[in-house]
Fold each of these.
Amino acid sequence: MAEITFPLPDLGEGLIEATVLEWLVSPGDQVERNQPLVEVETTKSAVELPSPQAGKVVRIHGGPGDKINVGEPLIVFEVPDNTAGIVGTVPKEEAPKRRVRLSAVLDED
Amino acid sequence: MSNAILESGAAMADGTPRRGVEQLSMQQALNLALDEVLAANPKALVFGEDCGRLGGVFRVTDGLQAKYGTGRVFDTPLAESGILGMSVGLAMAGFHSIPEVQFDGFAYPAINQIVCQIARMNYRSRGTMPMPITLRVPSFGGIRAPEHHGESLEALFAHVPGLKVVSPSNPHEAYHLLKYAAERPDPVVFMEPKSRYWQKGEVDFDSADPAGSPAGGSPAGAKVMRAGRHLTLVAWGAMVARCLQVAELAAEDGIDIEVLDLRWLKPIDEAALAASVRKTRRAVVVHEAPLTSGLGAEVAQLITQACFDTLKAPVERVTGFDVPYPSGDLEDEYIPNIDRILFGIQRVLEYKRG
């Protein structure tokens, strides 16, 4: 397993920090991409941050009221080695589904 | 970073190629092929963005830097023109570069180096400066990635004289085609279907082509992946697996489909195309790339040229659309799906000569 750290992004134009209001996930949780992770407040607004990826939460940084600087670690995920670092999502193998049926008169000329 | 992939699929410690049959993912198969190439050829080098310490964003170069050192497996700056420009100089100095462009869409900044230098240096120098460069490009769509991460550039590269272009469709093909490409004296663009990196399959190390094909056991040409009587589906890369699914579904309706994995997109195995379609008399070509001036047009023309007298219908193309590759949510609408391929087959089956 590999660890991936997600640093606090700049949530506005040139903001330098944000204050944690409430964590919506805990260490040990398995999260999906785009699942809300945490509510933070900046000098502009309070926002929920969606998860940039799927993975298991290993660590979260800062409790309610704590300030985190942009670029500092916010959350650490654990992901399988064969998906560490990919941009995108590992496709799921699904049983083939069809709606179209074929019909033909096959003369063997 | 652990070496999980390397441990589960490494060449023997002394670099001896593996024997027998193993279940591997395409990532593992490519990793193993690179491992064996590096072991066998002291002039072989592997480099690109994140290829060294991280082991590649798709884990294909995992563990290779630890095994072969930072002099032979290394990270580069985020500058594709530099990655490919350096490959030109290294080729002149006698090295065999195996650079990686991290994603298909990142090849554009290196087009000058690929087209103006790599493809024609051998020609320009009257054969005194061959360019043994194996350019690995994770290609095509299917992983819900952002822009520039899902493009199909085969027609662009195939159009350039001096380049060879190949795309594996499964782990077995990936292992043998990469080893084969890395032994060529010519530049080869190696397009890895990124949506197929994780699927496992049987790799037969002893034989590149155990099933037997028009290529005669060599990784050099196309390969019949499923024999059939009524229609030939021509595909490459990730579309081969989808066409094999379609063939199974068509069999439920009594239609017996042959699936031809083109493998080499430059040069195209015209003899294999002709042999297959002379038998089935119908053909549909499937690709992810946009329709207009896509490689499907070339394939359709080659089939028509060879089989015009016996074709029962014009060759159909089932492809992506003439739009920039869409964002993840629209991907399933863009990439030819099972129903669109079945519709293409139906159009060919019901065609009546005027």
Amino acid sequence: MFSRAYRVAITVPPLAWVTVFLLVPYLLMFCYSFWSVSESQAIVHSWNFSNYRELATKTVYWETLLRSMWIAARVTLFSLLLGYPLAYFLSFRAARRKDLYYQLVITPLWVSYLVRAYAWKTILGTDGVLNTLLQYAHLTRHPLDFLLYSPFAVVLTLTHIYTPFTLLPIYASLEHIPRNLIEASNDLGASPAQTFWRVIFPLSIPGVLAGATFAFVLSLGDFLAPLLLGGPSGIMISNIVVSLFGAAYNWPLGAAISFCMLLIVVGLLFFSERVEKKWSFS
Amino acid sequence: MELLVSGSVPVVQKSRWLTVHALAVFAFLYLPIAVLIIYSFNGQGVGGFPPRNLTLNWYRILFQDGPIWDSVLNSLTVAVSAMAIALAFGIPAALALDRAEFPGKALFRRLVLLPLILPGIITGLSLLMLFREVNVKLSLVTIILGHGTALISVATTEVFAGLQKLNRAQEEASLDLGANYWQTFWRITVPNLKLSIIGAALLIFTLSMDEIAVSFFLIGRDNTLPLEIWGRLRRGITPEINAISTIIFVFSLAAIVLWYRLRVGGQGTSQVGAELTENTIAGCDSRV
């Protein structure tokens, strides 16, 4: 039905743009990761593995990467624990108020990410809302100082930010479950718990995977919440990259770390897509 | 549905637990926003319980703050330009994924969507390297290119979802009756995709207004609003930030209500975000 000219006209412009502004930059990042910096702080375009060797041998990178993954894993877990039951509530219990509740879930997304992280900072600080509230209520005498500038603050803030992201795909997958399957399960004598674990939950796995991937990947790459709320013990891998591209001025090493992150992300996406295909209802 | 009642006792119990959980999650989601708004009116500044000496002083200071309003203007410029780029390339990209076969299509599909799921730092840095290699000076233009490119993904997913619901018969009829492709595109395809396109545009606009990870690396001399806020946060807490955030929140709410009206006025539900996240993972795959 569509002529060749039409197909060329819709394909070539986006293809060209995406090649220049996405494919080439990602490839360039890959190239950079093999280059180095000279004494005079110029980029040396000679190819070797020294950046990757440095990453493999220096423990600080590994430790930070593992800590970032641990933070991201906790964020993912908490987002799922908060998001799944709420998605279930929206899909199966909210009835006529469904649209309203849905709006309530996504409205916080329209408040700037930065501003929400900042709001947590004003809540958790030593002179912050929570500490002064606790003292006002005579529950504590001195401010609790573990609240801010700790991995706890980073996990809390990122969980707050990514819970709605996690909920959305779970909710979508719950909405797609044919309601007559649930009725059939009930008709055949399954208890609500059995219906949930044997029918609803397996069918919602693609949504869970999608939500978990979002939360994990986006919090793994975050560098603003750690800078704002993390303190020295909350530094994440992206903070190292930022400093390598800034004051430390070692772009090639920063590119090598970024490329490793890119590989982790693409690997996770590939994995979740595979598992999702296996579980998707068709 | 009556048969569900057979298990009514456990369902009710479970439902109560679920309701409490839902309330708790909503409280968690809205607590920082409430704190933000309340303390924008607090005479003693941010922090300190209970809030006292309610004042509009911070708003007064805010309105006299030149750099903040410059950055708001910059952000609006960036958001509108990024929206234009993302739509100009995202709509054809969705059409291409829907109706053309070409070598590398699978790779193209993944590549277009990647910036949505990839941490912004990676997209930002890779573009920074590109601009450095070709000696482009960083400015608002580089931020526009960055946002525009990253947000093509949003336009593509939204429009692609719209295309799946589109009946091609109208387009076929138009072509049969002698209209050319250009006319058919503007008179049939675009009007049919109106809701998807407006939805994408609104989403792109808000995402761009809030974007910071990509902008962080592509910034020249002029700040966007999030970067201006970021700069001030690094220096310390100031209630002016609460005031500007409250104003933006009110504007966002107005935009949501507007969007909601549009959606309800047209067909379909208001659940655009769910479609977006789902499509991102599924990767605009028409088999889904």
